[in-house]
Specification:
The model has no long low-confidence stretch (mean pLDDT 97). This protein has 14 helices and 19 strands. The protein starts with a strand and ends with a strand. Helix 9 links the parallel strand 10 and strand 11. The protein has a 6-stranded parallel sheet with strand order 2-1-3-4-5-6, with helices on both faces. Strands 15-16-17-19-18 form a 5-stranded mixed barrel. By secondary structure, it is of the alpha/beta class. The structure holds S-adenosyl-L-homocysteine, iron/sulfur cluster (SF4) and FE3-S4 cluster. The site of iron/sulfur cluster has 10 residues, from helix 7.
C-alpha cells in the first residue's frame, strides 16, 4: 500500500472534494496518512480567495519540492482553486510538481495517478459545464469522521461579485442531480452521520438549470427531510435576494431543517454594494433579514463582511459596523479586501485602501462582531435547547461535551460521558463571546 497525504485549504467545497479524492485513491491501494514526511504522494487542495491562501500553498509546495530535490521518492500534486486558475503556469513556478488538477474534473484523479506513476507530468484544468454526477456514483467518499456530512448541491457561481475569484476558479453554476444528492445523504446517514449540510455558493439557485422548473432547493429539502431517521439538515450559502418565501416556509415546515441562515451582506453601504456588483442595497437586505426573523422563530442569521474594499470611505465602513448592530447579526466572517487577478475590482488600483487602514478597519469590524456575538448569545441564557453533540474532551481538568443547537449556536456542557452523535436537551446557564454554557436536563 502507498501512502497519500492531502493538505486541504479553503472552504467546505474543497473539504468535500478532498473526501472524494481520498475515496478514489482508496480504490487504488493508497491509504491516508496525516504525516507528510511519511507519504509517497503529497497533494495540496488549494484556495485562492485571498492572496495569503495562494502564497501559503506555494510555500508548502516549496517545502515538498525541497524533499524531492534531496532525493526523496515522492510524487507531488496540486489541486483546487489555485490549480484551476494557474494551470500549466504552476510547472514554471514549481517544476517539481507532477500534476495539476483543477476543480472541474476531480474524477480524473485515478487516471492522472496512473500517468504520473509512469513518469508523466499531467495538467487537467479543462472547464466543464456539467456536473460529474455520473462519475460520483462510482466512487466511495472517505468522509472525515464527524457528526456532520457536507454534500455539494451546486458547483460554480454566476454572480461575478467584483472582488471574487470563485466564478473563475469554479466556473459556471451547475446543479447536481437530486438522485446523487439523496444517495450521498442516505449513505452518510447509514454510516452514522447525524447532520447533512447542503453546500453551494448560492444554494437558492439550486435547480435553475433543470428542465423541471419546479424542482428547487425547497423540493430537495423536502426529499431529504423524508429520509427515515433522526438527523438535521442545513444549507449554506444563501444569496440575500434569492431567498424565496417558499424556502423560508419550508424551513419552518420541515422538522429536520434547522433554523439557521448564512446570508452574507459583504458591506453595510449601498454604494459599496453597488461597486461590488451585489444585487441588493442596505434597505433590501434589511427587509430580507426582517422577513426571515419574523417567519422563523429563534433563527440565527450569520454573514460575511469585507473591510477596505477599493474606494470604501470611513463613512461607508461605519455603515458596515452599524449594519451588524441594526440587523442584530449573530455572527460574521470577516476579511480585509485582497485584490484577485482577473476580477473587476482588482483593476481599480487607484482606489485601493492602504494596508494599515484596512488592518485597522478589520480590527474594528472584528470587535463589532465579537460584541454582537456575545449580545446574541446572552439572549439564550435560561432557555432550553436541543444540542447535537460533536465532541468530547478534557478541558482544564473537566470533562466537557461540545455541540450545536439547531440554530448553530455552539454549546459547552460539563459531562463525564462521551455523548458524541447524540441529541440531548440542555438548559443554557451562561454565555461567552463564542459559545453558550449549558447543563444536561
Ligand atoms: N458565495 C458566498 C461567498 C463565497 S467566498 C457569497 O456570495 O457570500 C467567502 C467569502 O470570502 C465571501 O463572502 C467574502 O466575504 C470573502 N471574499 C471573497 N473574495 C474576497 C476578496 N477578494 N478579499 C477579501 N475577502 C473576500
Ligand atoms: Fe463569489 Fe459573489 Fe459568487 Fe459568492 S456570490 S462565490 S462572493 S462571486
Ligand atoms: Fe472555496 Fe477558496 Fe475555492 S473559498 S471555492 S476553495 S477559492
Amino acid at each position: 500500500m502507498k501512502k497519500v497525504y492531502i493538505d486541504t485549504m479553503g472552504c467546505q467545497m474543497n473539504k468535500s472534494d478532498t473526501e472524494r479524492m481520498f475515496g478514489m485513491l482508496s480504490c487504488m491501494d493508497y491509504t491516508e496518512t496525516t504525516d507528510p514526511k511519511d507519504a509517497d504522494l503529497l497533494m495540496i487542495n488549494t484556495c485562492s480567495i485571498r492572496q495569503l491562501s495562494e502564497d501559503k500553498a506555494f510555500s508548502m509546495l516549496g517545502t515538498w519540492g525541497k524533499w524531492k530535490n534531496e532525493g526523496k521518492k515522492i510524487k507531488i500534486g496540486i489541486c483546487g482553486c489555485v490549480a484551476q486558475q494557474k494551470a500549466e503556469k504552476v510547472f514554471r513556478r514549481a517544476p517539481y510538481v507532477d500534476f495539476v488538477l483543477g476543480t472541474h474534473k476531480i474524477y480524473s484523479l485515478p487516471e492522472i495517478i496512473k500517468q504520473i506513476n509512469n513518469g508523466e507530468r499531467v495538467c487537467e484544468c479543462t472547464e466543464t459545464h456539467q456536473t460529474e454526477d455520473d462519475k460520483a456514483f462510482k466512487f466511495p467518499i472517505n468522509r472525515v469522521k464527524a457528526v456532520n456530512a457536507w454534500i455539494p448541491i451546486t458547483e460554480g457561481c454566476n454572480n461575478f461579485c467584483t472582488y471574487c475569484i470563485v466564478p473563475y476558479t469554479r466556473g459556471r453554476e451547475r446543479s447536481r442531480q437530486p438522485e446523487i444528492i439523496i444517495k450521498e445523504a442516505k449513505d452518510a446517514l447509514s454510516q452514522g452521520f447525524k447532520e447533512i449540510t447542503l453546500l453551494g455558493q448560492n444554494v437558492d439557485s439550486y435547480g435553475k438549470d433543470f428542465k423541471d422548473k419546479n424542482y428547487r432547493l425547497a423540493q430537495l429539502l423536502r426529499d431529504i427531510n423524508s429520509i427515515d431517521g433522526n438527523f438535521r439538515i442545513r444549507f449554506v450559502t444563501s444569496y440575500p435576494t434569492d431567498i424565496t418565501d417558499e424556502l423560508i416556509e419550508t424551513v419552518v415546515e420541515l422538522d429536520k431543517v434547522c433554523e439557521y441562515f448564512h446570508i452574507p451582506m459583504q458591506s453595510g453601504s449601498s454604494e459599496v454594494l453597488k461597486a461590488m456588483n451585489r444585487r441588493y442595497d442596505r434597505e433590501t437586505y434589511a427587509k430580507i433579514v426582517e422577513k426571515v426573523r419574523k417567519m422563523v422563530p429563534d433563527v440565527t442569521i450569520t454573514s460575511d463582511f469585507i473591510a477596505g474594499f477599493p474606494g470604501e470611505t470611513e463613512e461607508q465602513f461605519k455603515e458596515t459596523l452599524s449594519a451588524i448592530d441594526e440587523f442584530e447579526l449573530d455572527y460574521s466572517n470577516t476579511a480585509a479586501y485582497s485584490p484577485r487577478e482577473k476580477t473587476v475590482a482588482a483593476k481599480w488600483v487607484d482606489k485601493y485602501i492602504d494596508e494599515d487602514v484596512k488592518t485597522e478597519r478589520l480590527a474594528r469590524l472584528n470587535e463589532k462582531v465579537r460584541e454582537n456575538c456575545l449580545k446574541s448569545n446572552l439572549k439564550f441564557v435560561g432557555r432550553e435547547m436541543e444540542v447535537l453533540v460533536e465532541n468530547f474532551e478534557n478541558h482544564k481538568g473537566q470533562n466537557v461535551i461540545t455541540g450545536r443547537a439547531r440554530n448553530n449556536k455552539i454549546v459547552h456542557i460539563p459531562c463525564n460521558d462521551d455523548l458524541t452523535g447524540q441529541f440531548i436537551n440542555v438548559k443554557i446557564t451562561g454565555a461567552k463571546t463564542w459559545y453558550l454554557k449549558g447543563e444536561l436536563i
